[in-house]
Structures are given as C-alpha cells and as structure tokens.
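Structure ticket #2291
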Amino acid sequence: MDTEIELKFLVSDNEVPLIPALITQFAKTVTNKPAKNLTNAYFDTPNRELRALDIGLRTRCCNDECEQTIKLAGEVVGGLHQRPEYNLPIQSGRPDLLAFDANIWPHGMQLESIAENIFPIFSTNFIRRTWLIETDSGTKIEVVLDKGEIAAQGKMEPINELEIELIEGNKEDLFLLADHLIKQAGMRLGLYSKAARGYRIADDKPLKPNKFIGFVPLKSQVTQEQALIATVSYGIQFVQKHEQCYFNKPSLKTLKRVIDGVSLIRHAFWLFDDIVDKSSTESIRNELKWLLSELAWVENAIHLKTYTSKRHAYHKKLNQFPELAQVITDLQDVQPTPTDIEDLFHCTRYNRLILSLTRWLVDRAWRKNWDQKALSAAELPVTEIASQLFDKDWQELKNLLPQDKSLSEKDYLHVRIKLENTLLSGNCLGKLYDKETRKAFRTPWIDIVYGIYELETLAYLYQLCQSQNADELQEVQAWLKQKSDFLISAMEQSRQSSMHSEPYWF
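Resolution: structure written out below.
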C-alpha cells in the first residue's frame, strides 16, 4: 500500500511553459521522465456503491501494460490530498476486485456482489509529463503535469492540472515547492480529483453552490481538538468549493458563500481559543481579514440586485424615481467584474492563504505553545464544552436584546455581528444535537439576521437619497422609512416569541 501525499494545482495554458524552469529553480537535481499517454477507465456499480464508500476503482493502460488501482477514503484539505492507494497489474481492461488483499476493504462491504456489477462509468485520457526532483535536504518529490480530458455520456471536460507528490523525505519541502509555484506562477490550488469531476459528468450532477453554510459533520465522541480540525477543514473546503462554483458560473450569492466559509474559519479560531493560541493564527487571521475586505462590497451588491430585480416587490416603486435608479446603476457599474474576482482567486496572496491554512492543519501548529491546561482541554469531549459555549452566547444575546425593551433600527444593526457569531457557533457544533429541535430554535433567529440585512439595505438606499439632496426623493425616503418600520415590527414579534423557545442544547 502507498499513501499519497500530494498537492494539486489547476493550471492555465499560459502557466504550462513556466513549469520546467520553476522546478529547476527550486530543486537540487531534476530528472525528466519520458511523457506518457495514459488511458484510464473508472468503474462502479449502477447504484454507485463504491462512490458511497468513497472508494475509487480505476484501470490505467500505457504501452500495452495495464494496472488496476483502488483508492480508499482519505483526506482532502486545501488542495492537499492524502489517500491510501493499492495497485495491481491486470491482463485485460476489466478490473478484478477479488485480486486485492481482503483486509483492505471496509467492514461489511458486499465485495462479491459489487465485483459482479461493476462497469465503466467514465474515462480520463491525458498526456503526462513527469519530473522527479530532489531538494538540498534530500527530499524527493514527483511533479506531474496532466493535460487531456474527462469523457462521460458524450460530454467532455478538459484536464489541465499539476500535482506535486511527496515520495520520500520532509513534507516541509512539499509546501515550500507549492509556495514557490504559487508565488512565481500564480497557480490555483485544486480541490477536486479527476474521479470527482468524472462522476459529476457521468451522473449529470454539476457542482452547485450551497444555499447555506450548513453544519460541520461532527460525531458526539470527538475531542475538542478533533472538532477544531473538522471545523477548519470544513471551512477551507467550503471556500474552495464556492471558488470553483464561481469560475463555473459567476454569482454574487456564490461569493457570499465564500464569505461564509471564511467567517466560519475565523470563528473557529475564537471558538476553540482554549487550545488555539492567538500567536499561532495571527498571520492567517490578518490574511482572512484581507480577503473579507476584498469581498466587503458583496452583501450590498446582493441587496441592490435584489431590489432592482423585476421579480422583487419594490422594483416598481423604485423605478418611479429615475434619479435613485440612476444612482443604483452607477454603483453597480463600479462593482468588481467577474474577471476581477477570477483574478483575485488566481492571485498569489489568496492561494498562499489557502496553502497556509492547509499547512496550519497538517503541522498541528496550534500545539506549539501548549501548556498542560491546553493539552487537557484538547482531550476533552467536545460535548462537554459545547453546552457551556452556547449558554454563554445565549446569555450575552439576551443581554443585548432585552425582552422588556423595544428595539430600534439602530439596535438591530448594532447587534448583527454578535447574532451572526452566535449562529456560527451553532454551525460549528450544532451537529451534536437533535436536528429538528435545533432547526426550530435557530430558524427564527436566522430570519431576524436576514431582516437585519434588509434593514441595512433600506438604510443604505435612504442614505443614497439623502446624498442626492433632491426634492423628488423625499417621497421615496418616506416610503423607505415606512418599509423599515414595518420590518422592525415583524422582527420584534419574531424576537419576542423566540425568547421563550427552549434552547436545543439543554
């Protein structure tokens, strides 16, 4: 068995010619292997039983020699792929699952039934160029450039990716090479394997953005440290998924999901501060703050787009005021374009941030300044701290939103960040609790957050009217104030009833 430890990059045609020189700059010695034309087929059952177990089954042929490969469930974090891999030679193009050691398979797997029902799902065909490099410290790294296509159901997607795999030596050198490639060529870290892409094409299930941030998949028996790792890993993958969704189909709401993922990672550093010393995350937190600042315009852009949509109830009213409509149009015209955002996701600073997060996880960097107290906290079951954290958040929220006080627009706008952070704690740890009870408690508060977003937009439009200083906009200002008052009234009713809800963590 081999365990792959590799980093994947998505490269453009412009970057391909730079690769040999970049490798030579980095390495002590470089061995250039002959290019190969690789023909691959991926197999599964009609019910995708292997996919359900996160098992990949592939045959690969080159120059009349074929092998079959099994890849078992592993980890993918920020472009770093780690998966157990087993290879055997075969005489034909059809794999033989029974030829593998019986001990590699997950417990309870119906091996014989699966072996009888497998068939080719999709193919990948590409030319592979390979360089074996050795660093000054003796680390050996394989650098592989694949250029070709994935084919399934009469559809095709291009393959244009670079993989660097640790063969022998120190993982530090793998990350140093990755940083060198990002810095010099602006390469973008890749999340999805060829197999994942192939299944999406074969099953006609294109990558789509999530509607919500969702919940970190935690099991009740995990420790606080394991929960930290799971949360940051979830956040990185969430950001990278929606980065790719944006390249597939640019959308403001997809960018909002990127913001959500970044916010979750930042929140995790705060949530697990018993075991995460601030010094271990200072540079990363600064870069996350930078990324959020680059995307700070997105929420207002979403609201402006919503209000100017022909399907929105306010569209007709706003269109009665051409002065305001023109101001909104002017604001939309100066928003970053899809090309600007793609440049952001390609830029060195963004990709070094993703690489830094990945390295922080792989190196367990939070352990460097641990004392006995932090060590003990890390080993605690996360269920022991979750309720305490939720209790603290809930009490702070009740203090900010006293039940006997009527809240104004200013009050709601002031409390938004705290309310969002409280809900983010639920995204991190809420999976530990009953789904229906959790949903019943959280839904009204989520609605209030959306109400605050709408209040912010109404306030923003109101300010735009004021800045124009036009008598014609007095009417729309009065109308916006009326809408704000109506929204606050609805939010107040929801808040008052929610205060009596039984918390789901009790």
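Closing remark: Residues 435-468 form the longest helix (34 residues).
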